[in-house]
Amino acid sequence: MERTTYCGLVNESYLEKEVVLKGWVQKRRDLGNLIFIDLRDREGIVQLVFSQEIGEQALHVAEELRTEFVVEIKGKVRSRKDDAINPKMKTGKVEVEVHEINVLNKAKTTPFYIEDDINVSDDLRLKYRYLDLRRPEMQNALIIRSKITQAVHRYLDDNKFINIETPYLTRSTPEGARDYLVPSRVYPGHFYALPQSPQLFKQLLMGAGFDRYYQVARCFRDEDLRGDRQPEFTQIDLEVSFMTAKEIQTMTEGLLKAVMKMALNVEIKTPIKRITWNEAMDRFGSDKPDIRFGMELKDMAAAVAKMGFKVFDQTLENGGQVKAIVVPGGTEKYSRKQIEAKQEYIKRFGAKGLAWVKVTSEGFSGPIAKFFDEEHVTTVKEIAGAKVGDLILFVADTRKVVADSLGYLRVAFAKELNIIDENEFAFVWVVDWPLFEYSEEFHRYIAAHHPFTMPNEEDVELLETEPHKAHAQSYDIVLNGYELGGGSIRIHQRDIQEKMFKALGFTKESAEKQFGWFMDALDFGFPPHGGLALGLDRFAMLLAKKDNIREVIAFPKNSKASEPLTNAPSKVATKQLDELGLEIEETN
Amino acid sequence: MERTTYCGLVNESYLEKEVVLKGWVQKRRDLGNLIFIDLRDREGIVQLVFSQEIGEQALHVAEELRTEFVVEIKGKVRSRKDDAINPKMKTGKVEVEVHEINVLNKAKTTPFYIEDDINVSDDLRLKYRYLDLRRPEMQNALIIRSKITQAVHRYLDDNKFINIETPYLTRSTPEGARDYLVPSRVYPGHFYALPQSPQLFKQLLMGAGFDRYYQVARCFRDEDLRGDRQPEFTQIDLEVSFMTAKEIQTMTEGLLKAVMKMALNVEIKTPIKRITWNEAMDRFGSDKPDIRFGMELKDMAAAVAKMGFKVFDQTLENGGQVKAIVVPGGTEKYSRKQIEAKQEYIKRFGAKGLAWVKVTSEGFSGPIAKFFDEEHVTTVKEIAGAKVGDLILFVADTRKVVADSLGYLRVAFAKELNIIDENEFAFVWVVDWPLFEYSEEFHRYIAAHHPFTMPNEEDVELLETEPHKAHAQSYDIVLNGYELGGGSIRIHQRDIQEKMFKALGFTKESAEKQFGWFMDALDFGFPPHGGLALGLDRFAMLLAKKDNIREVIAFPKNSKASEPLTNAPSKVATKQLDELGLEIEETN
């Protein structure tokens, strides 16, 4: 039998027609001489009817069916009776009278039901991933992911990008995150590394004159895992020659527009808003601001200066900041105890405390209300944009601590109060990043993006004097408070690249040893170029409205980087290690 | 300046218009007060003109330009004088009067010229791959490759396939070729393996109900390298549920049609011819026959039986074959010495000798001519389809040796005689393969495709009795004598899969240990399914008319699996090995 359509697509246009369907038994209702089967495939569910009158042999087969059996059926589509119409189902107005059925495969009882909102452990879901993926929400998530890549290919192909694959067996570079290594058999004691990104290869492709490159590329980082990290992840990676940062952003906006249309049928407005990194930190306390809601950070220095509240006064005297956010309607919703509980969360950012007042019709209330006289109350309310019933939260500290703390609280309160429109997709560019950031881990400045990022033209000379003051021709694209991707104009001249490595603490020799092969390439007519990479996993996660990238990856690793289905990683035969010239260290 | 078009696209439609171009200096002709520059980008070359009259400042800049400098120019397009028209160039009727030019980057002298047909070592080309790739033939090869993937995505997306990524960090399976291993840091002494293909994962996706899957997937095999093998290669991988082998082939033909159209603007005819594996071996002596030309193998048993030539007689008595091919016009083109030299080549297939006759107007000539009487001559000429001036080559041996030897000679002579139409693309399906083949290496039968291939329905019971006689529901797609890809209907029932493992020499325990996790999946309602994989590298190689897949891979490994540009694989820091719990074996 050749299938004529999918179960989920049977509708009134098929009335009185014969259809052949193939799928899985979702459930069976046996009324003796009448049996109803819900048959499921990737497009949805349709109701099958079996009876003596329709077909005796088919009825007998239906009697033996159990959940998840695979069957093919031939039958006629008919209208349901009015009282049997199910408005919740796409196919709810019709059903199929089955006169022929074949069981294609049987099924044992599955360890969990094939339905949405199951409540089983992640590891059980991963061990039986092939069953987990049968659930409509997982099918939908992977279909959205597929539509994203579909739009990406189509848009970039149409815009003269060339899809070029870069190597996965490449050279280890100790800079950055930890590499996954691959021992070489031909050269014992030597290793390939799996790429953390195709960065240098895509730059070389610009050196090779391809002008516009893209790739949907797997990347690998052997990092300690966090909620939304996986050992392997996928990047929509592109690079172009002879374009400015602004032009690359505009091109990317076209891509985002195409993706949103294809994946969700959502129209987004372009141009997408651009704000500088400084502005993002000042207004939202975050370099990946969620701009779906207000509650912006307001500078209170002018309003609270010399008010007599020591914490504020001293912070300002020491060159620090006092800033505030307003929690709308927070007066009633939060008790003193609940507010103070939030204080704990911001300690990790180095905040020493959280000051707050409730706005009442009489002025302010709360522990520090007494410091505010009538004029202070008026000015604070005005600058903060607060009204009666609101809660105002203050943090007084260095710029960074203030931003991190209030940036965190802004999102946390907004989520609790449900003031974020979950159906909105708010993109924003964050541009003009610092070129370097201070690494607490390495006690030195490291590249904020990577060492190949071009400084702003006017900042090139800072590389040799005050590199940490330099800003970069770099840009991140942010969606709903998540960094969706980022990019930059790259360095295409050897002398600037050498200065960059020097500013990063490389000696001439160590830079040459590690990146000499790349800097040599810059000597042979390298064009100005730049690019961008978008995180496909995160993009899919946001569009599928999931909270973990595992939910949009077919076979992800669990939180301990293992894969419960195939049981990878695993021990291997001694012969395999011998061929690689490797020994496993004895552990005591 | 914003580029208005590519150099290679400037034509008469731009006459008298201003253009902005960006590219590389291909060459400079300096006539003093008149300078011509050939400017190159990925689309081609256009001639620039500089003079005092057009622009003095631009002329001065042009004086300093050297090969491979990167420039941007603004200028006006004008017709060339009649005697200056270059019909070999796409842009040969026009040139650009440059009134503004900026040097974007300088270039040192390149180690080889940026032009086609260079004569330098492969390793030098790979070390400066970014320069090698600037050459038009390399640009063209990678653009063809990109167009193939473009067509693949478009066709499969349009046909409801879902693009799903499968893991690259997975479990090692000792079956098949050698795995690349990736040591785990979280579980010291344990290893991931890079996949040799997504085979089991794509089958699981059918178990998960995705119905139609595809992926352009990187695959990894740590094999000893041969001409057209690379440690990593790319597969166009697809799998579908509920379709027959024939339906999958028809679907694939649509894909091939789309690819040929997009990549080369070539229309191919469908349906593509199907021949069985037996027929391919009998007629062409090859399971990947080049059907662009005839010279088929003819069975000579009837014609030469009991002729008195011992080699033929004994072979036939022992159940062997005597077959022949005809080399058209071979009488004059090949001397006895040249023919006998060919004999050396077929010894590797186990052939003991090559018998031959030249067809003259008097009958046959050559060492064994005397064995043929008039009747033999007539019958042989008739069966072989030979005429005066042709050379007939005989091999007498087992079926396999005869096929391998004559199959080889057929192609070798056809190439030498230039009788193959190099502009033809001849696809053919080879179907109904044996399920097993005897491995000289392992001294046992191994799976001809892989252990998940479904036997022909009528051969399922042979699995338990005479497995080597079973044929499979498998199919290869062959292009111009190369295996472009292959696939099969897979086993979807546990009992058949168990029998298959048993026939391959697995014990119940060893099968369970290695593939238990997969066989468990077959218990939960696995649909009938099948699929196919096409080798992208080889496909691109054939369409770009190259003779090595390295020519269609941006950054390939050399013949010793190393990469001369980045110098991978390389030694790594002891710290990296310590974290993995690994030691390198001392070599004596």
TrEMBL record, chains A, B:
Region (Aspartate): 199-202
Subcellular location: Cytoplasm
Gene Ontology annotations of biological process type: aspartyl-tRNA aminoacylation
Main location: cytoplasm
Binding sites annotated in the UniProt record for L-aspartate: E175, R221, H449, R490
Pfam families found in the cross-reference section: GAD, tRNA-synt_2, tRNA_anti-codon
The keyword Cytoplasm is annotated on this UniProt entry: yes
Enzyme Commission number(s) of this protein: 6.1.1.12
Job of this protein: Catalyzes the attachment of L-aspartate to tRNA(Asp) in a two-step reaction: L-aspartate is first activated by ATP to form Asp-AMP and then transferred to the acceptor end of tRNA(Asp).
Name of the protein this chain belongs to: Aspartate--tRNA ligase
Gene source species: Ligilactobacillus ubinensis
Gene coding for it: aspS
